[in-house]
Amino acid sequence: MPASTTPPATAPTKNPDARAPAAPTRPAPSSPAGGGRRLQWLDALRGLAALVVVFEHSLDVLFPEVRKGVSPWFDFGRYGVFVFFIVSGYIIPASLERRGSVREFWIGRMFRLYPLWAFAAVVGVGIGLAKVSWDPPGDLTAKPWTSALAHLTMLQDLLGVPNAVNVFWTLSYEMVFYLLVTAMFVAGVHRASALTAVLLAVAAAVFGALLPVTLLASHAREGTIAAAALLMAGGLVAVMSGNRTARRCGVLALAVLALGLVTLNNRIGGLESLAIIATMFAGSGIYRIQQGQSSRWPAIAAIALVPVLSVAGGAYLAITADRLPYGATGVWGWPAAVAAAWVTFLVGMVLRNRRFPRFLAWLGVISYSVYLLHSPVVQIVWRLVGEPARISVPVRLLWLAVLTAAVLVTGAVAHRYIELPTQRMGRRVITARRAKAEAHVQAQGRAREQDPGRDQDRETSGDEFAVAAGSVPSRAP
After folding, report:
1. Cα–Cα separations (whole angstroms), residue 413 to 124, 305, 464
2. Which of 406, 408, 366 is nearest to 1 (CA)?
């Protein structure tokens, strides 16, 4: 998953574009990792999660016995993605607050997410059209322009559109989280992570099983896609504007879009859909506790309820699946995977000052490439292997080693030649923006010295205020 693990600076930003609280008078705590080092423990967790997701998608190809016997009791894929979700929740809001600018955050996200995503989409659709292992979903190719628009928002899994690549569904929830985090940051309530997490977890446990699936898309999919794209684009433009009323409207648009899709138009069921967002906010709450931004014990109690309620809700689904509407799956693998993901994250956090295996840390660095591009490799291996029941277990283990090696090589090459160059490009764009904004503020300052009454009634834009207050960081992560 795409969350960066560069530790954030802790100096908050006073920015009217964001409406964030002013800096506290007491010294800000240090980063959990200290200095400018990457948070190696988060990289190691992401590396482990990436390996588990690859293993999950190898089961049908090589080990159908494991799929049949173990998956109903432990969902390897859900385990991996929930580790990713907790890590993203931990680091993403800190990344926004470190930058101190909504524009810079989204520029960074665009250059971080979209180039490799576009490459993976082309490869995934191409592999499908070539009929290597399975055809692309009919709905995807029947209305390509509508499907393309839904994918461009990265909300396609919440818009009733089949994913061009199977793992793209998690990016829809990442995008929902980014939208909510942005709305909360601009509204000035971004530190309420623990409260937000527990409210979402309660909603998941109490109402999740009763919420509809693809309610909007089943009645007007094209209209839902168009409305979502307009709300997302309009909301982001509004929250980045220099007008207070526009920012408030943007906050409302982003919140309505994100929460509306998660509760009314999800594909995986309301309980899991809400639990995912609650889990990400719980990760943010853990970060805030470490940074001294939340009351320690109330926040800990609220965050602890998130996995408890998520697992309890999953167990309820497993017990009462035959009596629930909207096709609830009702297997124990999901709650077991959520519990294990939380245990894994907490163990990693306890051991965060220890050295982790370099391989896992390296794998975490390239995990976005591994995650997005392993599916085509799995399909090719499936085509080569054929029916796994006809092959002995030692040979299948050898094929697993070949598959894993191919995935790692593919991920490393994509990271080197797609991710890194586009991330550098994003940093150059942000640096140029900062220089331009700073020059504009300096020019306005000189103009005010010459004419103190000039622009007295004009509202200051967020970028100008950030530079004037000295809150723009010296470098883009």
Report:
1. 17, 41, 40
2. 366
Residues 1-36: pLDDT tens digits?
665 554 443 333 334 344 443 333 333 333 444 333
Give the pLDDT confidence score for residue 322 in this predicted structure: 56
Across the chain, which distance is largest between two alpha carbons, in Å?
85
353 is written with which tokens?
A: 């000052």
The DSSP element (H or E) to which 247 belongs, if any, is helix 244-264
According to the model, what pLDDT value does residue 468 have? 33
H helical segments located in 351-452: 358-365, 367-385, 393-414, 420-450
pTM: 0.86
- Identify the residue whose tokens are 């150059």: 428
pLDDT at position 320, please? 79
Alpha helices, DSSP H, located in 24-75: 40-62, 64-69
**Residues 364, 44: contact at Cβ < 8 Å?**
yes
Please give the pLDDT value at position 331. 78
- Residues of the chain short of pLDDT 70, as ranges, are 1-38, 137-138, 321-330, 452-477
Q: By the 8 A CB rule, do 3 and 43 touch?
A: no
- Can you give the pLDDT at residue 35? 37
Under a CB-based contact definition with an 8 Å cutoff, are residues 46 and 5 in contact? yes
Cα atoms in the Cβ-side hemisphere of radius 13 Å centred on 63: 19
Q: Are 477 and 6 in contact (CB under 8 A)?
A: yes
Q: How far apart are CA 477 and CA 101, in angstroms?
A: 13
Structure tokens at 157: 């899994």
Question: Quick check: 1 and 368 in contact, CB under 8 A?
Answer: yes
Alpha-carbon distance 392 to 414, whole Å?
Answer: 33
